[in-house]
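[READ THE FOLD]
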Amino acid sequence: MSQTLLFNETKSQLELLRNFIVQKNGEDQTVTLTKGDTQIKLQIHNYMAYVNGVPTWLDTWSMIKDGVTMVPLRFVGESLNKDIQFDEGLIHITNKN
């Protein structure tokens, strides 16, 4: 099962994306998420992402489904120093100590 986070331009679906600055570029199909000192850049259908300019391989790529951009939840969370646990359909997001 793909572990992705749904969001749109006006409202995040999970607390994790609250207070993010989200920039979409339709020409090169990139999404840039900025929160505090962390900048995450993803490109639709690309297994390479960048965290503060450092390239990182993804287990799954970002995609657009029914006009909604989907990004890998675990990757975004861990890039923000969060612990992401999936348990029988529940998602637990906590700060790492």
User: Anything to note?
Assistant: Confidence is low (pLDDT under 50) at residues 1-13. Residues 4-95 form a domain with the Copper Amine Oxidase; Chain A, domain 1 fold (CATH 3.30.457.10). The chain is about 5% helix and 50% strand.
